[in-house]
Amino acid sequence: MTSRRILSSERTLLEKDDSNVQTPSASEKSDIAPVVPAAVILKLLGFTAAMVAGPIGVYFMTLNTVFRGPFLINLSRMIKVENVAGNSTWAGATAAIVANVVLIAYVVVAMKEDQSEKLAAEESAKKKR
Question: Is residue 95 a contact partner of residue 55, using CB atoms and an 8 Å limit?
Answer without folding.
Answer: yes
